[in-house]
Amino acid sequence: MAHKKFKKKFLSIVLIPDDESSPKNIRIRYSVLTAAALLMIFIFVAVVLGAITYGKLVQKAYENISLREQNEQLTQQLQQINELNTELDKLKNYGRKVRNSLMGYVNLQSELENVNTTANAESNSNPGTFSVFNSIPVKAPLTGFISQDFNKNLHNGVDIVAPEGTPIQAAGSGIVLFSGWTIDGGNTIVIGHQKGYYSYYKHNLRNIVYENQVIEQGEIIGYLGNSGQKSFGPHLHFEIWKDGSPIDPRVLVVDLNN
Predict the structure, then answer these.
(1) What pTM was estimated for this model as a whole?
(2) Which of 249, 202, 254 is nearest to 224 (CA)?
(3) Which of 96, 203, 227, 250 lies 20 to 30 Å from 159, alpha-carbon distance?
(4) Spatial separation of the C-alpha atoms in residues 104 and 102, rounded to whole Å
(5) Among the residues of the chain, which ranges form H helices?
(6) Can you tell me the mean pLDDT for 110-136?
(7) What are the tens digits of pLDDT across the range 2-61?
(8) Distance between CA 56 and CA 135 in Å, rounded?
(9) Largest separation between any pair of C-alpha atoms in the chain
């Protein structure tokens, strides 16, 4: 019984050397082997769990980075959408006013009559200052050279080249129907005159008039620039419309022929 008890407590390992010397007997307690095995299992399980946990953390980190990038992209897209909506609202407002003015739905006559009443009153005290002719856009908006002529099918106005920042004058007395930004025309001004005339001033550096403002012929309304997608250098795109159709500005503005 004592021998059996002894065998259960130890594991004997016999080492036989090659030099025919005496064999060596190594005894290891089963408890030590059990502890070592448990330790190895614990280490193995810890390594596996650590690897799994690390993998999950790395995956979550990548997911967080991806979500952050997606949030930034969504934020930028939302900002672009808001900017496009703002631009669309401006274009709708611009289109509505121009369309209404060209179709005759804007009653400029009564407001322009008030301008003429004031003009007549001042002309009585200062003869020669005002004229009925001033309400028709016949004055050159600025001095420069024509880089592109009028073409009814391709180009509804003339391009006048001058140094950037050159003051732009109203071609005739009237009312500002639009003063704002468009994608193609950049800073744009539209003035309604008497007799069904409308004048357009595009690609301005900046506008200094506001909508519904009463303008006199020769009054500075903005400054020449290079704004808008269809501008490829500092110039003024100048148009004149009559009863809903574009006409060659050179027909009315004699100074443009010089």
Answers:
(1) 0.55
(2) 202
(3) 96
(4) 5
(5) 2-9, 30-103, 109-125, 249-252
(6) 53
(7) 444 445 677 777 677 776 677 777 777 777 778 888 888 989 888 888 888 888 888 888
(8) 77
(9) 144
User: What pLDDT score was predicted for residue 121?
Assistant: 53
> Which whole number is the average pLDDT over 163-171?
96
In the chain, domain spans: 1-106, 107-257
* AA identity, residue 124: N
- Judge whether residue 226 has pLDDT over 90: yes
List residues bridging with 122 in a β-sheet. Answer: none
Type of residue numbered 151: N
207 phi and psi angles, rounded to 5 deg: -100, 145
Would you say the C-alpha torsion 109, 241, 230, 153 has a positive or negative sign?
positive
Q: Report d(CA 215, CA 177) in Å as an integer.
A: 11
Q: Quick check: helix, strand or coil at residue 15?
A: strand
Buried b (16+ CB within 10 A) or exposed e, 181-216: bbeebbbbbbbbbbeebbbbbbbbbebebeeeeebb
